[in-house]
Design brief:
about 325 residues, single chain, about 60% helix
Amino acid sequence: MNRLLACTSVVALCAAFASTAYADDVKQAAPAASLPATLNGEIEHAKELREKGQFAEASKVLRQLMLVAGTDPRVASEYGKVLAQQGYAKDAVSVLTKAVQLNGTDWTLYSALGVAYDQLDDHTNARKSYNRALAMKPGEPSVVNNYAVSRMLTGDYDGAVQMLSQLHSNDPKVVANLSKAEELKAAHAPKMVAAQATVAAPVIAATAPKVDSTVVMQKVPTDPHAGPVRRANAAPRTLANKAPAQPVLAAATSKQDISGKDVVMQKVPVDPQAGPVKLATAKPLKADHPVEVAKATAKATAKTPPPPTLRTASD
């Protein structure tokens, strides 16, 4: 019994010594500025690095956290924001979309998604993301600022100026963006006025044409045989030394001599395959032929027309 107790005491002392030695080794191997050991501490440390602009260091920490805690919405949120600020827009959209699926109540995720979509020139989805963020956090200056920058990217400088002016913010970013939006609005205003003037100019010229004093009109050529020029309202004049044309009557044309020697008849073409031409001979009609009977009946029943004075309208 005493031997068993003695063995147990020795094992306990050895374990305590080993634990102390291991702790000393870890303390010597670990750097002085080691990262926090908890997940919350790691996330806060990565967030601090991102806010300081140390995106590479923050991305390195978050990549390790994504391997062990990729389903944590805070890890995915911070990693997506860092990727967007580094310019990796496509990867940022993928990670932030996953973060939204894990936690759809975080308005900062939609604001970051809008920035990533703007980097991809997908301004339609960017506008949807900003509107979703503002629906959750109305009037949030950071979202309005990002939304105004998106408006400037699409050429809506007037809308960007209105959005930034309503913030009444002294934030250096907001002030700088408002100044830039006003500058771009003023720079593009003359071009728009000139374009409108260019479109309106042809219409004015067409409705009110101007006569250039340097234009020389060519004289109208005159015909010496045509006589003097008459006005349209002048009386008609008779032609001198010209007999009026006489109409040619049908009776006169019948007296014209048209002899056979002046007429040239064209020969009828002969078809050798048709055979000889047979002459048509008219056969005399019989007295009891239907045509002869009809003619005789009509002649017998014909009435003598009344004199002109006795005709009526029905005749």
